[in-house]
Amino acid sequence: MDRLSNTIRPYAWGSTTAIAELLGVEPSGEPQAEMWMGAHPGAPSGTGRGALDRVIEADPERELGPRAVAKFGPRLPFLLKILAAGAPLSLQVHPDLAQAKDGYADEESRGVPLDAPHRNYKDANHKPELICALTEFDGLCGFRAPAETADLLEALGVDSLKPYVDLLRAHPEDAALREVLTAVLTADPEQMAETVTAVTAAAQRLGGPYAPYAGIAHHYPGDPGVIAAMLLNHVRLQPGEALFLGAGVPHAYLDGLGVEIMANSDNVLRCGLTPKHVDVPELLRIVRFEPTDPGVLRPEATPDGEEVYETPIDEFRLSRFVLPEGAAPHDLTATTPQILLCTAGTVHAGELPLTPGQSVFVPAGEKAEVSGVGTVFRATVVA
């Protein structure tokens, strides 16, 4: 197996302390948003044999195993991250596989440069993702029942919200949600900024269920995404709890430290809380306008002590082992590729000691055993 050297991405929304504290090092003073573990070409992990993407490219069947290559092609189909949100991320949604293929082919045929700021589809893959909290973790996930959102908005006492309140009380619910989101994202910018300012003041005064949205508005004053965010469920994960974000589900991470895993894609359509391009017509085509429960996931324990976060996705499978003192080693040898990540304590992956934030890549079929006292996350595929 290979010890990984991983890149930390300094996105502006990143925490200035959380990743440093996990790693046990002094903070740099700059935002540290994500630490990437995998073979994504944008920041592949380093190994003693070279960059992981090049290692896999040189012998994909050896590194990934024949079953994974047959199912997903000659590439690692997931990206594992430590994510540290110190400010809200953009409100966003991801396409399903068919939408991603169609969108990518369309932009390619029209000659839209891959690095163009208005490009929506960077690749032809979908981007389901799972976030598992290491600390308390706040996020937004899926539409709240429209009638409940109508009550929430009405209680703010902001006159310019009344048309949205009336729409949200109409039926059917999917049409109501579509009309309100469309109206918010296409409103006159100056008028919307005034509405957001009034909503912010009311939310700060009322607190309680409005507090998360007041916090969002603090970071994005005047942004229509503040109103769009109020259409969504707020959820607070406790350590060990997780959220699965499927295609078409609007979401945003607000604050906290977590382990994130996703299919290896960069396809994001934004709804607000960002200075980046918002393609409203394409966004409205991708969003699933249906109220949903956030669906907090808790791991399901297997007889051998593995705690699995079950999802309907084959590109990744995330689980963890919480190793108490005196526990017998766990044999994790598998026919699929794996990344093992320590998040607490001191553990061993084979002969390699791992402290929090350290990780290893285990090629398919390679002997893999974990021992020690701490917590280890295991990322692999279903093949």
Structural class: alpha+beta
- Report the β-strand fraction as a percent range: 25-35%
Number of strands: 21
Question: Taking Cα atoms only, what radius of gyration do you get, to the nearest Å?
Answer: 22 Å
Helix percentage: 25-40%
Q: How would you describe the shape?
A: globular
Spans where pLDDT lies below 50 across 5 or more residues: none
The DSSP helix count reads 12
What profile does the largest beta sheet have?
9 strands, antiparallel
Mean pLDDT: 96
Span between termini: 20 Å
In short:
This protein is α+β, with helices and mostly antiparallel strands and 383 residues long.
List the helices and strands and how they pair.
Layout: E1 2-3, E2 7-9, H1 18-23, E3 34-37, E4 46-47, E5 50-51, H2 52-58, H3 60-64, H4 66-72, E6 78-85, E7 91-93, H5 97-109, E8 129-133, E9 137-143, H6 146-154, H7 162-168, H8 173-186, H9 189-206, H10 211-219, H11 225-229, E10 232-237, E11 242-245, E12 251-263, E13 269-272, H12 280-286, E14 300-301, E15 307-309, E16 317-323, E17 330-331, E18 338-349, E19 352-354, E20 359-362, E21 369-380
Antiparallel strand pairs: 1-20, 2-3, 3-6, 4-5, 6-12, 7-13, 8-11, 8-12, 9-10, 9-12, 14-15, 15-16, 16-21, 17-21, 18-19, 18-20, 18-21
Helix pairs in contact: 6-7, 9-10
